[in-house]
Amino acid sequence: MSTTSTEDTWSPLRADPSTTQPGVVLHGRAWTSAPAFPDPVAPRPCVVLARVVGTAGGYVRGLSAAGAPVTVCTTLDQVGPALSRFGSEADVVDLRPLDGADVVESLGLGAALSGRTARLVTVVRGVFDVLGDEHLDPRLAMLPAVCRSVRQENPLLATSCLDVTDASAPADGLVRLLSGRELPASAALRRNTTWYPQPHRLHAASSGPVIRPHGVYLVLGGLGRLGAQVARAIAAQAPTTLVLAQRNLPRYSAGLPVGGSAVDLRQVDVTSPAQLSALLDAVQAQYGGLHGVVHAAGTRLSRARIDELPTHRSIRDQLTEATAASVLGTTTLYAALEGRDLDFCALVTPGPEAPGHALHTAAAAFQHAFAHKARSRAGRPWTAVGGELSALGAGLLPALATGVGSVLATAP
Length: 412
Ligand SMILES: NC(=O)c1ccc[n+]([C@@H]2O[C@H](COP(=O)([O-])OP(=O)(O)OC[C@H]3O[C@@H](n4cnc5c(N)ncnc54)[C@H](OP(=O)(O)O)[C@@H]3O)[C@@H](O)[C@H]2O)c1
Fold this sequence. Notes:
Blueprint: E1 25-34, E2 46-49, H1 53-65, E3 70-73, H2 79-86, E4 90-94, H3 103-112, E5 118-124, H4 142-153, E6 157-163, H5 170-178, E7 186-190, E8 193-201, E9 216-220, H6 225-237, E10 241-246, E11 262-267, H7 273-287, E12 292-295, H8 312-336, E13 344-348, H9 358-378, E14 382-387, H10 389-400, E15 406-410
Helix pairs in contact: 1-5, 3-4, 3-8, 4-9, 6-10, 7-8, 8-9
Bound molecules: NADP nicotinamide-adenine-dinucleotide phosphate.
Residues 1, 220-221, 223-227, 246-248, 268-271, 296-300, 325-326, 329, 348-352, 360, 386-389, 392 line the site of NADP nicotinamide-adenine-dinucleotide phosphate (NAP).
């Protein structure tokens, strides 16, 4: 995807060439189980990082039994010297998420390992819904996304996120993972089985159009680049009322070129519960209903390279700031829509995974997990749609028709 863009000159009133690309391919995620790795590698020296020494006990015993020399660290600054003492390629096992460490601490470890040759396994719980009925915490779901970003930013570092929820023997599973020649980006242990995620092709259901003729649709971030693509995609289906909302309304007040649809521009900050509820009430009162919401509000950051951020505190600040519209906006929207009966709520997730985009990647992972959870746990018709910019405008409505909570749209 091109990130250079026409940012300075782009206007929703102009045609956007990315909407004209024909066709999209939609993907979901499936989990497949696999036996132990063939041709295991010899155990390497291992640095185990744990907040609580007791958490490390079983893992240290398992690694030692497999023949790996192990050093346990309880603070980040002990990791570098421990690796240097081993003096060769080594593995790092981060157990801190099992004792409440969050994504910011993973970003800190990634930065501390920058420039080193190592393999890093982050051990987590409650991050993946592998079996289809598992509890999933959207905040924790940011962890594997950040691990993948850390891997992309550090070519010498291979990373993996291992979810040990309900594992019968988590240490054995960890040893199995580390005995593979290649470290999978994500894996999950359930009882005695190791599972791996695989993309799988999705097809839109053929049960009629998602957009109702004369329906009322709210697009948050509706005059942004993606929001306007979405508005045009909705309008191309049927004449509707499109309520386009964002914090700042433009100087021009002319409508978008959206065929027979009516456009209503509104001001809202998606992170404000009061403003969002007031907007929903006003739309409901004026139009007598609301049929769908698309959350396409977000901030496109300049490249926020984690190794350029000096302290943990600043990583946390950056994360909060960069993801406010996506993360806080999503939870605010969920609460504001409570009790309102919609055909769909779509979250358009921040950009693709790429070096320098760890914060966006984390926000996208949050939204995908949130929509999956809203659909599977609360029965709400939520879908997060991510993927290539060129495919999002054309892919959004087909993605909603798949009936799946988390979809990636790519150009064929
Ligand atoms: N998957 C991909 O390939 C991809 C590509 C591009 C973008 N995206 C994501 O999609 C989202 C929008 O991107 P874009 O390219 O359309 O960006 P954009 O052109 O900068 O538009 C962002 C829109 O969001 C609004 N907004 C930002 N913060 C808001 C808030 N707190 N409350 C209400 N509205 C808010 C902005 O208006 P105001 O500033 O006036 O509020 C604007 O309308 C971002 O999250 C971005 O990361 C994904």
